[in-house]
Amino acid sequence: MVRINRDVVVAVVLLLICGIFFWASFDIRQPDYGSLKPSTWPRAILAVLALLSLIYLAQSLKGGEDQAEIDDDKPRDVRGWFSYWRNIFWCFALFFAYLASIPMLGMLISGVLFVFLLLSVLGGWTWRNVILHAGVALLTVGGMWSLFTFGLGVLLPPGEILTPF
Q1: CA–CA separation, 133 vs 129, rounded Å?
Q2: Within this chain, do residues 100 and 157 fall inside the same structural domain, yes or no?
Q3: Of the candidates 143, 157, 45, which has an alpha carbon nearest to the alpha carbon of residue 106?
Q4: 3-state DSSP call for residue 18?
Q5: What does the alpha-carbon distance between residue 78 and residue 128 come to, in Å, rounded to a whole number?
Q6: Is the CA virtual torsion 101, 105, 111, 117 positive or negative?
Q7: Other beta carbons within 10 Å of 82
Q8: End-of-domain residue from the set 70, 104, 119
Q9: SS3 helix, strand, coil % of the chain, rounded to 5?
């Protein structure tokens, strides 16, 4: 017998949200110019999200016990609670710092710093990891920045440092 746990409910909710958003994509206005419909990219992204949600649903249906029943080692005091959730706090703090730094540093430098710092905070500060994280940050953010700037012609915030260039 299949036991409905928290992951099954979350997967079903994600699938419903994908369906609602896909249905809403039919209300996107079609302009008279251009060859690609404006609803193409949202639908492509929603299809990928729906596929990932289906995989999540399949894994949660064949999975074992609910994690909430297994986790009896959750902290009982405030210090332990912050220690238990510290990675989430780091993610939010670094993301807000990234958003705040975009006007001054620009999209490229802020994005590279954000990805590097987040990978280093979550993955550790050994020399091998720092070099790996720097490479990943430069290649991914630099590649996406190049794609949007040069390939698609999107104007990304240059910041105060790169404005003269």
Answers
A1: 6
A2: yes
A3: 157
A4: helix
A5: 34
A6: negative
A7: 11
A8: 70
A9: 70, 0, 30
42 lies in some domain: yes
Q: Which residue has the tokens 């992951």?
A: 7
Give per-residue pLDDT as tens, 22-65.
999 999 888 887 778 888 889 999 999 999 999 999 999 987 65
The amino acid present at 163, given as its one-letter code, is T
DSSP codes, 34-49: -SS-TTHHHHHHHHHH
The rounded distance, in Å, linking the Cα atoms of 140 and 132 is: 12
Domain-embedded: residue 75: no
Asked if residue 1 belongs to a domain, the reply is no
Both 64 and 84 in a single domain? no
- pLDDT per position as a tens digit, 67-106: 555 556 677 788 888 888 999 999 999 999 999 999 999 9
> How far apart, in whole angstroms, are the C-alpha atoms of residue 117 and residue 155?
25
SS3 of residue 31 by DSSP:
coil
pTM, two decimals, is: 0.67
Integer Cα distance of 6 and 70 in angstroms: 13
Tokens of 92: 């939010």
Residues 11 and 33 in one domain: yes
- C-alpha distance from residue 13 to each of 1, 4, 35, 44 (Å): 21, 13, 34, 19
Whether residues 60 and 101 share a domain: the answer is no
